[in-house]
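Worked Example 4.2. Consider the chain below.
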Amino acid sequence: MGPASSSRELEDVTRPESESVAEREIREAMERGEFDDLEGAGRPIPGLDGNYDPAWWARTWVRRARAQDAAWGLRRRIREQRFARFDSDLDRQQQVEALNAEIEVVNADLPRNEQIPVLHIEDLQ
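Applying the procedure from the previous section yields the following structure tokens:
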């Protein structure tokens, strides 16, 4: 037996016999580090320490729907401001700062992939 067969023997010894295909895929992904940068890593799962709320999904859905509605309205206003005329660069900068403050509030309730990017003064010209 060559070196390749001895490494297989070592793998067989370290791997449980009852490992399913799914468990093997998860273990291999963990070894490659594919779970290292997940959102929420190292923090407790929200809601695990509280009392059971049978309407948790409805509350979550309503909160997310409200955030999406607010984001939709804010995106519309940003589009309108891109075509607005400003009297000075100061007016433009103040508008960018006001919109960015609103973006920060809306983004707090949105998933990362739906968040609105922060504006720069060049975005409103």
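The chain has a mean pLDDT of 83. The radius of gyration is 25 Å. Compare this with Example 4.1 before moving on.
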